[in-house]
Structures are given as C-alpha cells and as structure tokens.
Specification:
single chain, alpha/beta, Hypothetical Protein Ta0175, Chain: A, domain 2, 2 domains, eight-stranded mixed β-sheet
Length: 283
C-alpha cells in the first residue's frame, strides 16, 4: 500500500476563510480521507502554534501528524502527549543568522521605517514578521533589505504575501534555509516519503516556492490571481490547478485539495467517489 504525505496550507486553502464559497461536504470528506492509515497529514502554515491550535478548534479541523509553522521556521510532531518541537530542524537553520538573535536583527532592520513589527506572538527566535503598507514597492524594499542583511553576513529568506482581509502586506524574515519547501523536504527525509508520495496544497505567495519546486502540488481554485499568473508556466505534471467539477464541487478550499489528491492518486480517486456515493446513499 502506497503511503501519502498530504501537506496543506491552512488559511484560504484548507480553511474556507476567503471571499469565495466553500463546497458543501468537502471538509467532511477531507476528514475521512486523512483518517486513512496510509495518509499522513501535515499542516504547513504562516501561523504560529497557538493560532494553528485555535484554527483547529474554530474550524473543526482534523488533528495532523506534523505541523510546519511560522512559514517553515518551526516543525512540530503532534503526539498524544502534546506537540514536540523538532530541535534538529532548529539547529539546522540557526547558522544562517551568523550568531545574531531575533532582537539583533530587529535593530539592524530598524533603518527601514516602512517595516512595522507584527505582535510579539507572531515572532519567534528564527522569524521576524512585519506589516507593510500594500502599496509599497515590495521588490525594491526586499532588495534593499537583502543588501543590508548580506552586509552583516546574514543569509536570510524574505517572504512577501498579502493579508487580503486586513489589507496589509506581510513580510517575514527567516534564515535562508527556513521556508515551507525546505521544511517539507526535511520532513520527507525524516519520515521516509519519496517525492511521488507527497502532495502539497496552497493558494498564496508564501506557497510559491513549493508550488514551483517540482513536488506534486495543487493550487486550489480560489487561489490568489497573482499566484495563478506566476504559476501559469509551471510543469503541469507537478502542479495541478483545481478547476472545480470534481464530485460536483467547486474546487475551492478543501474541495480543491480533494481534486488534487484524486488527480495524482487514481486509487484514492476511486475511494473518494465511493465515499461520496455512500454518503449520498445514507442521506
């Protein structure tokens, strides 16, 4: 039996908290899918641990086996005894900051007045998070920040995305080796999953590296239009754009994830169709 490591972003991917309508029954069918013994669920999010736990409660999300949080700067294994942080990952990404602390980097970047630090709970030892006015020239700003950091011998990964509900730009500063893609590959290595047995689902700018990496991925139908444009030339063998229509659903959020799973794994497509028929027969 082939195993599947199903990695999914949360906001506006699994969680239906965007402007588009969610497909009825999609999340319930997703819950059934990830209860299978051959499916390992991992959440991959920009949220920190407390916000992920809050989302799991508020949206009745299934408990994952792993959580990649803080845009890839922390990894947890979710055990019956609690969440266990992967310190091997922390040690692996730490050298990129050349021995400087989070607060050291904050002082270094204080020369950029457009950077407004996000609340303390959004920060961690390997992640600086800022709010930026959306009209700021993000490419120019990040170029100047990169030059500043490089001058201090710091290898950093700058990640830009948009908080649509809040109308704000989000800018995260991480160690260069800390991002969603590297964290997923680390998890694959630690858990023994080859590329063909992995699927990533996402919707926004901070998912781009994974979506374009060659790992089997799905872009949900409600994805950011700019991300759709940026991935238009991607390899169709490794990036699937949910279209809607699968199982009568619209391809948004969890419906798009299910559509992607069915696209890459025909055996699970058969199983999903049977589960939906069973549900309809029971009702």
């Amino acid at each position: 039996m082939r195993r599947l490591l199903l990695c999914t972003d949360l906001d506006r991917t699994l969680i239906a908290n965007g402007a588009q309508t969610a497909a009825k029954g999609a999340l319930a069918l997703f819950r059934q899918l990830v209860r299978r013994e051959d499916v390992t669920l991992a959440y991959v999010s920009g949220r920190h641990r407390a916000l992920i736990e809050r989302a799991m409660f508020d949206f009745d999300l299934p408990e994952p086996a792993f959580v990649i949080a803080d845009v890839g700067s922390t990894i947890y294994q979710v055990l019956p005894s609690g969440w266990q942080k992967n310190e091997v990952w922390c040690a692996q990404i730490a050298p990129d900051w050349h021995g400087l602390t989070h607060d050291d980097l904050c002082r270094l970047l204080a020369v950029f007045p457009v950077l407004q630090p996000q609340p303390r709970e959004q920060q961690n030892r390997h992640k600086l998070s800022y709010h930026v006015a959306p009209e700021v020239d993000a490419a120019k700003l990040m170029g100047e920040m990169d030059a500043c950091l490089t001058g201090a011998h710091i290898r950093a990964n700058l990640i830009w995305s948009i908080d649509e509900p809040g109308g704000l730009g989000l800018l995260d500063v991480l160690p260069a080796s800390a991002n969603k893609l590297h964290a997923i590959r680390f998890l694959m290595q630690q858990s023994g999953f080859p590329e063909r047995d992995v699927i990533f689902a996402g919707d926004s700018g901070n998912d781009l590296e994974v979506l374009l990496s060659g790992l089997p991925s799905v872009l949900v139908a409600n994805a950011d239009p700019q991300v759709k444009s940026q991935t238009a030339a991607a390899n169709p063998d490794t990036l699937y754009l949910a279209q809607g229509g699968y199982l009568g659903m619209n391809g948004n959020y969890s419906a798009g994830i299910l559509e992607g799973v069915a696209h890459y794994h025909p055996a699970l497509d058969v199983w999903l169709r049977a589960q939906q028929l069973k549900f309809l027969g029971d009702h």
